Amino acid sequence: MSKTLRVLNAVRSPETGIPLSIHQYKLLTPSVLIGRLVNAHQHLLALRISDYLGMNQEVVIMHWACSKLTVSSAVPDVTLLEILLDKLKLCRSISYAAVAAHADQSGRRKLAAMLVEHEPLSSKQVPLLLGIGEEDTALTKATESGDTDLVYLVLFHIWQKRPALELFGMIQARPIARDLFIRYARCYKHEFLKDFFLSTGQLHDVAYLLWKESWELAKNPMASRGSPLHTPRMKLIEKAQNLFAETKEHVFESKAAEEHARLLRMQHELEVSTKQPIFVDSSISDTIRTCIVLGNHRAALRVKTEFKVKDESLTN
């Protein structure tokens, strides 16, 4: 009862002017009274009563901070930041992101960026950084948080807002963001991934993508029509072979791609000459065996000679 009387005496003062009986106070509840004080810009009294009654001070401090931003248009950002932080630190649960959002709405984007730096929750910090155009900082905070959903949120935002080369430059120095981008693009955006690998000089990775696409085309009957020298599959394999040849570290892959292209050409020719669609995409050994089964020993010898197949390889 003594606490109630002290609160009622405080709000009855001429400066506040809220005369309440004990019955009215109980019906109104302390939280509603605090709300009225806040709306009347009696922040100091509201803060003292909240502290006295052991109530959460977040509502009071938040309202004060937003009000301070509104009436302090002439105060420099750095000075106002110090004033705000001095009071915001009184409440551990305060949302710095919410105050920063109000600063941005008030036309204080630089101050908003400084305020959001103090937001401890990445889930609140990152979206606001994106909202105020701080994509680079948002990407840094997202990767530091280790939250893949946040990283993807930033990546997709930048993807839509900035040129591709800017995105590539931003993720190249951030392994987590780069790896997540590659994982997504490998599944859904092959062309975009090829552009990324080309921009970073990873020609062998582009070659692997092209080679993979050639195998995917094998599932499409239309891709095998036409001259063996000009099918889409053949063009992809040849491009892959040329890209592998650009680096000394991928001589094996270059030779393998070149051999694959030669084998496909021969298999195409065999299917045309025999009118049997059974050669393409079989192994060298199986190609030779099929020729023998069909009685085409000359073709079998040609394949054996072309790919330098040893006799013991055919008997295994």
Automatic annotation (TrEMBL):
PANTHER family: VACUOLAR PROTEIN SORTING VPS16, VACUOLAR PROTEIN SORTING-ASSOCIATED PROTEIN 16 HOMOLOG. GO terms for biological process: intracellular protein transport; vacuole organization. One of its GO terms (cellular component) is bounding membrane of organelle. It comes from the Eukaryota. Residues 94-314 form the Vps16 C-terminal domain. Coiled coil: none annotated. This is Vps16 C-terminal domain-containing protein. Belongs to the VPS16 family.
